[in-house]
Design brief:
Elements (H helix, E strand, L loop, with lengths): L3 H15 L8 H8 L3 H13 L3 E4 L5 E4 L8 H9 L26 H17 L11
Antiparallel strand pairs: 1-2
Helix pairs in contact: 1-2, 1-3, 1-4, 4-5
């Protein structure tokens, strides 16, 4: 499952993506439009700024905007930034690998093999879909 933080980050970045090129968007607008607590949104947007996805300007005319065009920011990038991995189990993670607790034999584990396939397919989809794409519901 995606964490609430990941879902909030995606919604905030989608909001900024919809306004790309229109200047700074103030935090209260994003928070209200996306139903995200303002304090939590501040933390999320600070994290996105450190990762190079968002720029900010302080002051009355300030706000937030995407640092790159929305078509260059994928869902996979956002999920990895907020969740650390796309894998459902730690032994299937590419960047944050660690052995599963209580694993009998990782070399022959059939669950790991399935979870590696799930992670790869998930990555293929999330790394292909950018913030600019309007997906059918």
């Amino acid at each position: 499952m995606l964490s609430q933080r990941t879902r909030y980050a995606i919604r905030a970045l989608l909001h900024l993506g919809d306004r790309f090129g229109q200047g700074p968007v103030q935090l209260p607008e994003i928070a209200e439009a996306q139903n995200i607590p303002a304090k939590f949104l501040t933390v999320i947007l600070s994290e996105m700024k450190r990762a190079g996805l968002v720029e900010t300007l302080r002051g009355k005319e300030g706000g937030y905007w995407l640092a790159r065009p929305p078509e260059e920011i994928t869902y996979g990038e956002i999920v990895r930034l907020t969740r650390g991995s796309l894998a459902l189990v730690p032994c299937a993670a590419r960047l944050a690998y660690r052995p599963c607790e209580n694993c009998v034999d990782e070399a022959t584990c059939r669950l790991k093999a399935v979870m590696l396939s799930v992670r790869d397919e998930t990555a293929n989809i999330l790394d292909r879909v950018s913030l600019s794409e309007k997906m059918a519901v």
